[in-house]
Specification:
It is found in: Plastid, Chloroplast thylakoid membrane. There is one protein chain. With about 80 residues, the chain is mainly α. It has a domain at about 35-85. It has helices at about 5-30, 35-60, 65-85. α2 (about 35-60) packs antiparallel against α3.
């Protein structure tokens, strides 16, 4: 487990990455073919929702839920990258 003082750095890192990711997903939308846009938007929204839940749970002492949404976030990122490849 992380020390209590380390959590604020973890939170800051996640917020920073979330802000960059949001901009990157907007830019990537321009290169997605029209036929795949609906699935891209669905997957991107799923990623944002998972990151929001992950952000919520890392602020609480609920370790299992934090880990669960961490894994869901990673899977959503993998799915989004697979759509762009």
């Amino acid at each position: 487990m992380l020390e209590t003082m380390s959590w604020r750095y973890v939170l800051f890192y996640i917020w920073l990455k979330q802000a960059y990711l949001s901009q990157d997903m907007t830019n990537a939308m321009a290169v997605v073919p029209e036929s795949q846009r609906k699935s891209y938007v669905k997957t991107a929204n799923e990623l944002v929702d998972n990151m929001a839940e992950f952000d919520y749970y890392i602020r609480t002492p609920k370790v299992y839920e934090s880990y669960l949404y961490y894994e869901k976030t990673l899977k959503s990122i993998d799915d989004l990258v697979a759509l762009l490849a």
